[in-house]
Design brief:
This protein is 33% helix and 26% strand. It is built from 15 helices and 26 strands. Helix 13 (422-439) packs antiparallel against helix 14. It is globular.
Length: 538
């Protein structure tokens, strides 16, 4: 988040202007500056002595308290890393063990999860309950089982002088598909450069009202919130808000820009026509959502209901925001594509590690100030390449794709260094293409393609989908069944209608959670079919 000096600068230019809106709470820039100043003072009393790096993490959704705490951390030179509460106890415990945070910010919703986690420095870490309010005369000092309530930090006397800067470091938690969490490290501050690039590309300014409707653990969402506060805009915190309330916020707060998750966008667009934002998109001009799983229905409906405002983003914790696609091109462009952001360079590498010609498909590598320095917990695959502007360090990813004649990046699949049989490699490529085909079907809101191997189903694919409306599932079954038989005839396909498809903060589908939800239903349906066939043949 932004530092106290920047907050004071914006307060000097308009002390009564809104900085943060969180439900009924509205913090002006003047109030934001005072609260951050006191929070930083209170936090500094509990930090380890010395001038070495200090780390903090948060297990929380968007709130004015979290924004204040993160700005206090930025002021004190403390890195503050977002954790995904739904990533599982094993992943959370491993990340905490790697980071060894001195401070953990948590809300009541996730306090039970935190209490179950064990990591070496856990007993010494300061736990701050963001939504905690102390009773008069309550104990001030936290204990191992009693976190410090946030209001105690904000009641400290303001800082007289800012502390000396600590060594810079920032972290982002990412993952490879359904693999374990990994921590991307950046040891050079790039927030200012990132801010300038985004401001130039999208024309952001202090008159904007930005809707933060994605978890703060999502790196792109957090970067845009930081950017909007950096230019002095108003930020409306609204992740976890229902579609009806979100629709009202778009109108009542006169939102001009925003970040939204695919699932929240689907719910917003599924509202009845009478509930759509009105006056229609008179203020909204830029809405960003992760684009890896965005379908044709979503794109078309967003254009009809919201106007030409939807932009899709490609990126990761490792590469940052790497590509964006605008609303006009979304109507005709393939899924999982976009134009690289300012300051990002993409290379397409062949099997020998050398750059390929334009239009050829290969392994994707990225360079730029947003790209991480490496993993905290393992080896990083990099390459030194000269694409005509001098030698640069490229991060080699596990994604495949190409750059077309217009300069647009198209992601076509994933690659792996683990040897696989030729048939499996070909099938996995077709499954990626199948999902892209399905996302282009206008009869679906959302879908996922998952390969399974089990005693009941054997080697098969499972395809959950959300129909465009209640009662329209039959069309989805027919369209998906035909597409699966055409694209991957070698595997039986189990198509099933669902109400929701879960996403992680990075925009990836939580395939484990999704399979846990649908496999029992598919298994039961197969058993019922077998029973009916046996009765008919008897």
């Amino acid at each position: 988040m932004i530092k106290l000096d920047d907050i004071r600068r914006h307060a000097a230019g308009g002390v009564t202007r809104d900085a943060l809106v969180d439900g009924q709470v509205r913090l002006t820039w003047g109030q934001f500056a005072e609260t951050v100043e006191r929070t930083a003072a209170g936090l500094s009393e509990h930090l380890p002595a010395g001038d070495g790096p200090v780390r903090a993490v948060f297990l929380a959704g968007n709130s004015w308290q979290l924004a204040t705490a993160m700005s206090a951390c930025a002021t004190l030179g403390v890195s503050c890393t977002g954790l995904d509460p739904d990533s599982g106890a094993d992943d959370l415990g491993q990340v905490l063990t790697w980071l060894e945070p001195a401070v953990v910010f948590v809300t009541s919703d996730h306090r039970a999860t935190l209490d179950r986690l064990v990591w070496p420095s856990g007993p010494q870490a300061l736990h701050v309950l963001l939504d905690g309010v102390s009773a008069p005369g309550a104990q001030v000092a936290p204990t191992a089982h009693q976190p410090l309530n946030f209001d105690r930090l904000t009641s400290a006397e303001p800082l007289r002088t800012l502390p000396a800067p600590r060594p810079y470091e920032s972290f982002a938690v990412g993952s490879r598909g359904d693999g374990p969490a990994r921590i991307a490290v950046r040891r050079t501050p790039t927030e200012g450069r990132h801010l300038v690039d985004l401001v130039d590309e999208f024309g952001l300014n202090r008159d904007d009202v930005h809707l933060a409707s994605a978890p703060p653990a999502q790196s792109t969402a957090l970067a845009l919130t930081r950017t909007m506060l950096g230019v002095g805009a108003t930020v409306v915190l609204a992740d976890g808000v229902g579609p009806q309330e979100l629709s009202a916020l778009l109108v009542d707060e006169r939102v001009t820009s925003g970040v939204i998750t695919p699932s929240t966008l689907h719910a917003l667009l599924a509202l009845p026509e009478t509930a759509e934002p009105s006056p229609r998109t008179r203020h909204l001009r830029f809405l960003l959502t992760p684009g890896a799983h965005l379908g044709r229905w979503t794109v078309n409906t967003a254009w009809e209901r919201l106007g030409p405002v939807l932009h899709t983003a490609l990126g990761s914790a490792e590469t940052g925001l790497s590509a964006v696609m605008g609303p006009e091109e979304l109507l005709v462009s393939p899924p999982r594509s976009g134009h690289t952001t300012l300051g990002t360079t993409v290379a397409v590498l062949g099997a020998d590690g050398r750059p390929l010609e334009q239009g050829e498909t290969g392994r994707l590598a990225f360079a730029g100030h947003q790209v991480m320095d490496g993993y905290l917990d393992g080896e990083t695959h990099t390459a030194a390449l000269d694409l005509g502007a001098g030698e640069q360090r490229f991060l080699v990813t596990d994604e495949a794709g190409y750059v077309d004649e217009t300069g647009r990046l198209v992601v076509t699949g994933r690659v792996t260094d683990v040897p696989v049989v030729v048939r499996d490699s070909a099938v996995d490529t077709e499954l990626f293409r199948l999902e892209s085909d399905l996302l282009n079907l206008p009869c679906l809101r959302d879908t996922a393609v998952m390969r399974v191997s089990s005693a009941v189903l054997g080697d098969a694919i499972v395809v959950p989908f959300i129909a465009v409306a209640v009662g329209r599932e039959a069309t989805g079954y027919q369209a998906l069944g035909a597409a699966c038989a055409r694209r991957v005839p070698s595997l039986p396909a189990h198509v099933i209608a669902v109400d929701t498809i879960p996403y992680s903060p990075t925009g990836r589908i939580r395939t484990g959670d999704l399979l846990d939800a649908v496999l029992p239903i598919i298994t039961l349906n197969l058993q019922l079919e077998q029973s009916m066939q046996q009765e008919m043949s008897a």
